[in-house]
Amino acid sequence: MINLRPVIYALGPLVFLLGISMVLPAMADLWVGSPDWGQFLFFGGLVAAIGLQMFLANRDTSDSLNLRQAFLLTSLAWIILPAAAALPLWASELGISYTDAYFEAMSGLTTTGSTILTGLDDAPPGILLWRGLLQWLGGIGIIVMAVAVLPMLRIGGMQLFRTESFNTADNIIPRARQLSFAITGAYIGFTALCALLLMMAGMPTFDAIIHGMTTIATGGFSTSDGSIGSFDSAAIDAIVILFMIIGSIPFVLYLQVLRGRTLAIWRDEQVRVFLFTLSILCFCVIVWLVIWKGFNWFDAARYGSFNIISIMTGTGFATTDYGAWGSFSASLFFFVMLIGGCAGSTSCGIKIFRFMVLFKSMKSWMSRMVQPNGIFIARYNRNPISEGVVSSVMSFFVLFLFSLITLAIALTLTGLDWITALSGASTALANVGPGLGDIIGPASTFEAVPDSAKWLLSAGMLLGRLELFTILVMITPGFWRD
Questions:
Q1: CA dist., res. 191 & res. 209, Å (int)
Q2: If you write DSSP's letter for every residue of 36-78 in order, what string do you get?
Q3: Helices assigned H by DSSP within 225-268
Q4: Would you say 220 and 113 are in contact if contact means Cβ atoms under 8 Å apart?
Q5: What is the pTM of this model?
Q6: φ, ψ for residue 384, nearest 5 deg
Q7: Digitized pLDDT (tens) for each residue of the chain, 482 residues in all
Q8: Could you give the residue ranges of the DSSP H alpha helices within 92-216?
Q9: How is 263-301 classified by DSSP, letter by letter?
Q10: What phi and psi values does residue 108 have, to the nearest 5 degrees?
């Protein structure tokens, strides 16, 4: 059997940190006299105590984790933390069930952005702050996981991003700790800058802080039912667009820039393809809105660019109900939500680099068909792409499609119509947020979705956030055998 003590030891500080974080929304509620401050304080103390006990009871164990323990730690962290984060939501004056609370917490920590809540404009500040904190903390966890953990676990081609400092599956915890300090500094800096610029653009301070956290995390939780559109400001839209893009670029590249490599971001092939794809999509949507929908150029650029960038980066903010633009927009947004941003960022979706590996491998294969004696090598960032990476990426695409179809069919069994089920499965696996249709579209919430569907969607968010293999590998008998 797997030795669980190193896993519990590593989980302890994460649970403790989550519990301590509940003090902030408790203080916010106490400031305005909301009774929810007691719930946050009670559950914060309880969760922190449990996390501390998990750490102290296993402190004599080794820091190092083997491969199976690393899989288990990664999966359990993203299952247990939402379960704990849901407690104050469940006990608050919102009066929601634990199912709804878990869905909201899972959506927050995975930075999906789907919500079951309405009346956010009048919600207690503690609830709004807690939702923002969940996405902000989840964004940090996603970056560290994508840079330090998943490449070692060889998940979906992520081994392509192995670095010299993280080239083995041993000692994951101390090495991830070293990297997380540098990443956290950049992450905090971008969050503060985003919040400051939003305040300068006219957004209230409290709203700016929360949107600063959820924008850089590409999460999409807002303080208003109308999302960013409720502020009706072109300046705010532009700032949010900038930081959604910043959050979708690998954070290790920002560290390289700080170390003197000023062109590191532009020299990265994945970033160039990501920015080029965004530009083409924005141009197409803008032209379509002007010609077929009668928008003027300014409004087309403002609303078209914002919403297409929000969906592709997996943020899920909205400035208008783009679902009302017609069938073309619905089809386009459905496929765009699956693309995602760059690996090593807070963005979601399949990721740009996987499409690049797929197309480069296909081009190399087709060239060999035309010239059987030729030598054609697929390259990524000027380095040859190994067969292991190609196989891993191909497997990911197949598994993603299989998971999407399976989840969509399961959702139809709960009574949802096909459009809601398919877009719900897509937005969950791609960790985007809003779906399509009248029930879960950009102008709606997931409140009307049956409880059974909410648990399925929560599982889909988990699968998508952990790149599918991390969870599914643990259901194989071989994983549990010595």
A1: 8
A2: HHHHHHHHHHHHHHHHHHHHHTTTTS-S---HHHHHHHHHHHH
A3: 234-247, 251-258, 264-267
A4: yes
A5: 0.92
A6: -60, 140
A7: 677 888 898 899 999 999 999 999 999 999 999 999 999 999 999 999 999 999 998 887 766 777 788 888 889 999 999 999 999 999 998 899 999 999 999 999 999 989 999 999 999 999 999 999 999 999 988 888 887 777 777 778 887 776 544 444 444 445 556 677 888 899 999 999 999 999 999 999 999 999 999 999 999 999 999 999 999 999 999 999 999 999 999 998 998 888 888 888 988 999 999 999 999 999 999 999 999 888 999 999 999 999 999 999 999 899 988 878 878 888 888 899 999 999 889 998 899 999 999 999 998 888 888 888 778 888 888 888 888 888 889 999 999 999 999 999 999 999 999 999 999 999 999 999 888 888 898 888 999 999 999 999 999 999 999 888 888 888 877 777 76
A8: 98-109, 125-144, 150-153, 172-200, 205-216
A9: THHHH-HHHHHHHHHHHHHHHHHHHHHHHHS---HHHII
A10: -70, -55
Find the length of the chain: 482
Amino acid, single-letter form, for residue 153: L
Residue tagged 């060889």 (tokens): 154
Cα distances from 356 to residues 138, 249, 277, 377, in angstroms, run 26, 15, 12, 14
> Residue 454's closest CA among 226, 136, 134, 114?
114
CB 349 within 8 A of CB 338: yes
